[in-house]
# Entry
Amino acid sequence: MTFESWLEQRQRFFNGHLARFLPDNCPGQLAEAMEYSLLDGGKRLRPILTLTAAGVCGGRDEDAIAAAVAVEMIHTYSLIHDDLPAMDDDDLRRGRPTSHKVFGEALAILAGDALLTQAFAVVAQSHLPGEIVADIVRELAVSAGPQGMVGGQVLDIAGTAELQEMYRLKTGALIRSSVRIGAVAARADAQQLGALSRYADALGFCYQLTDDILDACGTREQTGKTVGTDARLGKDTFVSLHGEEKVSEMAARQAVEAELALKELAGQPGVDKLVELVHYVSRRKN
# Structure
């Protein structure tokens, strides 16, 4: 099976399970707004990382599916809020109008809030043992909160932070957690968790570097969203500071670091797919 076929299969598997984790009986248009952003496709990179990391550590899809859904809900919440006028003020996401353009700012904010809190409900209601649930909840809370995405967004707004630190918090923290919660769900040992953490750190930085390149040099048709947002908002990026060629070299080095981190896990089932996911991220066009 080619990597592309495997990736499509994993996306279909995940998408086939996602809707059943949404809550019932939401008031007003809340359910529609949640579904609009959550079920509209996307690469599903983070939940696929969760499921793949679980497999590398000997776990099954059913062990990690709740954690995978939770991380995608948190990611979707962050996109809804990031697109708001008070943040990046974007009107296009994944080729469609952003949530606040369709439902208004107030309902978009509440849909994001609902997805964030539902993520923790999904994990809490899973069949996993209590101590593993607690570890996953802790991991997700740190990556989504003031020591993760929220803190990174604050640094982004302030515009005074060292870029790599801002990227580590805003983008890298959730990618790191996506990998780690899969390993935790599969009862990984310390060596496995350490290697996968190093892999995820390098992958997260590589992802953000390629994102900078796409925002500066990509097209709306490629990315499915407005490009040039950082320049429009006057934000420094690695591309604006160092140029596309230099940033491409930096992304390639991070890809190598991610692959090297997996050497400790050579021979484990699914490690080859984690390697191919590095190539996918470093060469992505959307």
Q: What stands out?
A: The mean pLDDT is 92. The CA atoms of residues 96 and 169 lie 27 Å apart. The beta strands are 92-93, 96-97.
